[in-house]
Amino acid sequence: MRFEQAVSVQWLAEFTGAELVGDTEQMATGINEIHKVIPGDISFVDFEKYYNKCLLSAATIIIINKKVECPQGKTLLVHPDPFSAYVKIVKHFRPFEPANKMISDTAIIGDDTHIQPGVFIGNHVQIGKNCLIHPNVTIYDHVIIGDNVIIHAGSVIGADAFYFKRRKELKSQYDKLESCGRVIIENDVEIGACCTIDKGVSGDTIIGLGTKLDNHIHIGHGAVIGRNCLFAAQVGVGGKAIIQDEVILWGQVGVSKDLTIGQGAIVYAQSGVAQSIEGGKVYFGSPVEDARSKMREFNWIKRIPEIWDKITNPKNI
Question: Would residue 221 show up in a list of annotated catalytic residues for this protein?
Answer without folding.
Answer: yes
